[in-house]
Amino acid sequence: MPDRSWYCAYQGQQHGPFPDAQFREFIASGKVRADTLVWTDGMGSWQRAGEIPGLMPPGARPPAVPSGMPGATGNSGGGVLSIDLPLWPFLGRCVLLAIGSLLVIPAPWTATSYYQWITPRVHVPGRPNLGFEGKVGDIWWVFILLALTGYVGRIHGSLQLIGFVGQAWLGWMLLRWVLSRISSNGQLLGLEFNGSVWGFIGYQLLTAVSIITVVGWAWVATSWMRWICRNIAGSQRELTFEASGLEMLWRTLVTVVGCIFLIPIPWVIRWYSEWVVSQLVLVERGNYANA
Asked: Which residue in 13, 24, 52, 97 has the most C-beta neighbors within 10 A?
């Protein structure tokens, strides 16, 4: 599979992902040897490169130990996140998620299934084989209440603000749960979200108010994303959000226009989702400063 990505282990550290073509170049140059531990999607565990059929040239011998591996520097722990979203399965999962929310009762099942499906498709440098260990019964009531608060404003206008604040609080609960249940190679990463519930509610209210400015909401949204990233704890690396307000604005507008015409919906939603993930970057803590 020429489009696969590879990870390798060197001096006790994981490096990658590397595109298949680049990884083959490492093999040819001797940077990846027959005894190098490697992993790619579909493998149950790490294996020596020489044990994988067809990977190493026939009769290849381990050359001299290379002086360095790609990524084996002081910034080896950083990198850009990416996501692989097959078009029609992604659309189907989004539709199923929306239906579950509309019908309320199925919401815990459809939402948990969505996270279990999409998490392994996120590629994080140094964290192969991502998974989601959350269960339907963990916070089922949060999903039920989230679905119900969507109907609160329709009952009476005076309840709209209560429903809006309730959704923000429930969204904060959901974010904490999702992060805490992410695993790598079957082991929980121990991630936590330390942002306050009032900060989360405040940003959601500010985003809603900023919509009246027509364009200002994009800068509020990017600031909110950076605030969320700064408050993720439990890792030696820090997650940052690199997009500017202008980038958020025009890409969102293109997505909205595409959805108006109905037919482009699957393509523009995938395009937008992949872009958002690509703006998430891991850096060593202390090496990044952002306003």
From this structure: 97
**Backbone angles phi and psi of 132, in degrees to 5:** -125, 120
Q: How many CA atoms lie within 13 A of 207 on its CB side?
A: 18
Asked if pLDDT for residue 163 goes beyond 70, the answer is yes
- Give the integer Cα–Cα distance in Å for 62 and 67: 14
Report the Cα 267 to chain-centroid distance in Å.
19
Q: Are 59 and 65 in contact (CB under 8 A)?
A: no
Query: Which DSSP category does 49 fall into?
Result: G
Dmax over CA atoms of the chain, in Å, equals 76
Tokens 């509610």, located at residue:
201
Query: Is the whole model's pTM more than 0.70, yes or no?
Result: yes
Order of strands, sheet of 182-184, starting from the edge strand that comes earlier in the sequence: 130-132, 182-184, 187-188
Burial 90-111 (b: 16+ CB within 10 A, else e): bbebbebbeebbeebebbbebb
Confidence of residue 12 (pLDDT cuts 50, 70, 90): low
Q: Kindly tell me if the per-residue pLDDT of 129 is higher than 70.
A: yes
Mean pLDDT, rounded, for 30-48: 80
Q: In what order do the strands lie in the sheet with 280-284?
A: 79-80, 280-284, 237-241
